[in-house]
Amino acid sequence: MKSFFRLLFRSLLIGLLGLITLLVAKTIMFSSRQIAVEPIQPLQIPEGASARLSTSLQIPSLAGSEGAVFARLDTLLRAQFPRAFSQLQVEQIGQGSLLLKWPGKQAKLNPILFMGHLDVVPADSAHWIYPPFAGTIADGFIWGRGAIDDKMSVWAILEAIEWMISEEYYPDRTLYLAFGHDEESQGKDGARQIGQWLASRDVRLDFVLDEGSFVVSNALDGLEAPLAAVAIGEKGFVSFTLKIDLAEGGHASMPPSFTAVGAMAYALERIRQHPFPASMGGVTGQFFDYVGPEIGGFNRVVLANRWLFSSLLIDKLSADPAANALIRTTAAPTLIQGGIRDNVLPLQVEATVNVRILPGETIASAQAYLEKIIDNPAIKISVADNNYGGDPPAPSSTEAFGFQVLQKTIGEIFPEAVVAPTVSAGFTDSRHYRAVSGQIYRFSPILLSKEDLKGMHGVNERISEENYARMIRFYRQLIRNACQ
Q1: pLDDT per residue over 233-248, tens digit each?
Q2: Residue 119 catalytic?
Q3: pLDDT tens column, 316-355
Q4: Pair type for strands 137-138 and 141-143
Q5: What is the SS3 assignment for 50?
């Protein structure tokens, strides 16, 4: 018997040593995917750049505004960037969108396209330090709605081009600029029409760059460097209507055990208790392949050996809303209605559940999962709006020219940052360009903290003057890297 236990102990010890050896080997082989880039010296940006952005923030170009509001922005753009608007070809699209073309010297090179949008969401001024549409420059920041979503992109791109034209720079590769006026309300009259305009002229873009992820400080435990996450894909979008329709209601003083409100509440709680399955593959796996080697300590061991620690990693990531959105399809109840009086049991109750779909899944698979989890044939699930939303697009490649030139430029302007591909949880205007390019990236070159991110669609939206200057330098360098 003693010999048996000695053999068992020896086997366990050998197995443990083998496991440790494997973990160590995989951690050692978990090599960096960052590229060696020489940082460039920051140049002095054109004088008055902050003031020009400030002026744009003073025009309340709310999504859905009349064309006259965007006409004011158009007039402002032409006045502030006369070289760009005289040298580039300009097309006015829809009620306020613009498409500019900077012809390249080499027609054999496929063009590229940079995006931004002119419209903003509403702002309640009650809790703002400075009025949301005053464009105040104070404390080293430019304050106002649109400062980081997304007028800063439009103005920074044009600042860079105006600057380059003054230096008599001419691109080898054609560059398009697409500035939509209704991104916050689905982009149907702006980006969609621009995409159709390009497709009708057989334009094939090498890559598209839209707003999206940022350079974020303190983004992950164990990652000391800022994280420059470049979204190579975005989640699909769908809102489902959940509806229950009973034949009988009744008086609230004599409620049955099964009510329409109760059934709907239980269904929504079932969705909360049973989130969509997490995935550590696809773009999520790529993200950790880029980030993991730059993290120290035990976290690096975990990320290098996700085959063993996936459950531990998923539990940890699921506790943070932003990280949770990276690893799974999410479902969020956003609207609920039903009932006519406080003492009448309603016959009908409806709820809206907004679902952001991870690449690899579909609207159909998301609906099937919700039906399975709710498990109540009395609750019917249907797509709320067939004209808005869609399945997630196929992710763009990290091996393609677009990602490589972005990674190089980030290294030159943000030398301390770690670059990693990711998935955007948002639903951007870039979806309207899928017919003209297979490589679409979403990245805004601004260094933000998690606290700064709360200003987007929130209160006290702002961008530091230092950040804005760096953003202009980024686009200038990106154009040089991509278009020569």
Answers
A1: 999 999 999 999 987 7
A2: yes
A3: 999 988 889 999 999 999 999 998 899 988 999 999 999 9
A4: antiparallel
A5: helix
Q: What span, in angstroms and rounded, lies between the C-alpha atoms of 141 and 244?
A: 50
Average pLDDT over residues 166-193: 95
Structural domains in the chain?
A: 49-232+392-483 (3.40.630.10), 236-383 (3.30.70.360)
Q: CA-CA distance, 232 to 210, in Å (whole number)?
A: 11
Instruction: Show the tokens assigned to 389.
Output: 């939303």
Sign of torsion over alpha carbons 400, 403, 405, 407: negative
- Angle at the Cα of 132 from the Cα atoms of 128 and 136, rounded to 5 degrees: 95
Phi, psi of 455 (to 5 degrees): -70, -20
pLDDT of residue 297: 84
| Residue bearing tokens 């620690």 | 309
**What is the DSSP code (8-state) at residue 127?**
G
pLDDT confidence of residue 162: 98
What DSSP string describes 270-308? HHHHSPPPP--SHHHHHHHHHHGGG--THHHHHHHTHHH
- List the catalytic residue out of 183, 294, 361, 452: 183
Structure tokens at 25: 């080997």
344: how many CB neighbours lie within 10 A of its CB? 12
Give the angle 286-292-297 at the CA atoms, nearest 5°: 165
Determine the pLDDT at residue 2. 65
What sign has the CA pseudo-torsion 117, 121, 126, 128? Answer: negative
Beta pairing, strands 440-448 & 137-138: unpaired
